[in-house]
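Hi L., both proteins are below.
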Amino acid sequence: MLKATTILAGALAAAVATSAAAEGELNLYSSRHYDTDERLYSDFEEATGITINRIEGKADELIARMSAEGANSPADILLTVDTSRLARAKNAGILQPVDSAILEARVPSYIQDSDNQWFGFSQRARIIFYDKNDVANPPRTYLDLADPAYKGQICIRSSSNTYNQTLLASIVTHHGAEKAAEWAKGVVANMARAPQGGDTDQMRGIVSGECEIAVGNSYYFARSIRKNVKGLSDSRDMIGWIFPSQDAEGAHMNLSGAGVAVHAPNRDNAVKFLEYLASDQAQQYFSAGNDEYPAVPGVGLAPSIAALGHFKPDDVNLSEVAKNIPEAQKIFDQAGWE
């Protein structure tokens, strides 16, 4: 007897292979800014005969645009990065529930919306990086970053950064608002400089000697393994990394995900696209093309991301984390985290 996963994988392949008869269009609103995603789109078009029309922009701008367009919006799909933005889209009323046996079987429940309005399709671990030459005892958990022993050593992004917002929201979820507030104040006290730049800039801060410890998403570092990243690849050997909280909740994971627009004019094609993103082919390309972790269990990792090693991810339900994002922003403000 075939296993259920094998049957569903076969059903997914058949759905993609035979959907060319439907053809038509798909209007995709995307805030993913990666050139490597071109392969995802072209493979879907070739397999289905469905033409993808893209509008690209920043997530908040696309959410505002879809809200303003209302029932006249041509959007079929919103594709964006991080739980906070997916939650923002849901709360704005611009997504709709999707009932798909393929998505339910392949996308783990903790990285999909509790009302099936969005699904995660790739992941990035939020890692602690450190200078191997100067830091003998690096932080082992996110909470350790607030330890006074690391005063003046930490480089981390601003409080407006969505990755940090979701990280703090997860700390609220696991440890409560009071502990999260103590943590935020402690990290501010330990900063080596005012928050600036992106995740790669935090790692470059270690290379330049501005800080000894940095926080960043895994794919920024993995990219420096796969190809040359200025100011990082040549000095990568001096940087160590920790997957935090391995004896507790596990490493926090950021998502890239998508949902079907509430007024999608091509709803069937939109659902086909979400199901395609959950296919082995697309999942492998998220990893190989952009150094991300697949969302679907059992899909192989690209060498660049596999080089970071095995770890325990936090499997907290991200729908619950999303509820604490407003509280996280309030805590950031009270802590004076720029």
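That was the first. Here is the second:
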Amino acid sequence: MDADTLSGQINDCLARMKDAWDRGDATAYAECFSPDAVYVIFVGTTYIGRRDITECHEALFAKFAKGTTMFLTVLDMRFHGPDTATVLTSGDAAKRAPRPGRGKVQTYTFHRGTDGWTCVSFQNTKRNVLMERTSFLFDRRFRPILQRAI
């Protein structure tokens, strides 16, 4: 299978996640993850498995994330063989889109099994723009290479 087809399949999975999130459907959202997935939120809380992911999102959609939309921009997608991919995204879940450069950063690891692609690991990190900029002032090597020309 070629890279464009594989990328399309991963993008389809991300679209299913977004659709489930936007509908506030915790069960459908968790179905995008493997039964034993590891899910780490931006405060460091770690959920293991689809049941854990479902239950925390039921609570989340009932309160803090009620009526939110998932905003997601794929920054990088890499395949490590035909059945494993890592995806780096920027975005957030909110009632309106985050300002450019202000969203969270997420890393997904996808695996293709007999039932198709599922996310086996997710890490969500909240950016601290002030700390990031401060570190860049101390030593330019803290700034990622692709941003040094900016």
